[in-house]
């Protein structure tokens, strides 16, 4: 009986490790996409697990993982953001929107092509 419990425990630990790895990769991808969308730089290209809990949505028991990450508007300052996943579903993404103007388009970078129309008049 004790061998069976050891095997079940090892399988459960392996499943939890794989599930945590998948959730972390998903969180990095979400942060990367959001950083590009809002024109900020995701620093260190990583997220860090801040807390772990359990939620009971309609689908059944799911782990709720909250990750923190750092981003910068100009590459100098270091600002914090948070992201929460319930299972593999995004619960919230929190940049400090008080300092990011989400209505202003991204600044063009060197190498971007901006078409010029000679007939354009304001």
Series of secondary-structure elements, N-terminal to C-terminal = HEEEEE
Helix content: 25-40%
Strand content: 25-35%
Count of extended strands: 5
Mean pLDDT: 82
What does this 3D model show about the protein?
- The chain has 1 helix and 5 strands, in the order αβββββ.
- Strands 1, 2, 3, 4 and 5 form a 5-stranded antiparallel beta sheet that branches.
- The protein has 122 residues and is an alpha+beta fold.
- It is 30% helix and 29% strand.
- It has one domain.
Primary descriptors:
single chain; 122 residues; alpha+beta; five-stranded antiparallel β-sheet; 5 strands; disordered C terminus
Layout of helices and strands:
Elements: H1 2-38, E1 41-42, E2 48-55, E3 62-72, E4 79-86, E5 89-94
Antiparallel strand pairs: 1-3, 2-3, 3-4, 4-5
Summarize the structure.
This protein is 30% helix and 29% strand.
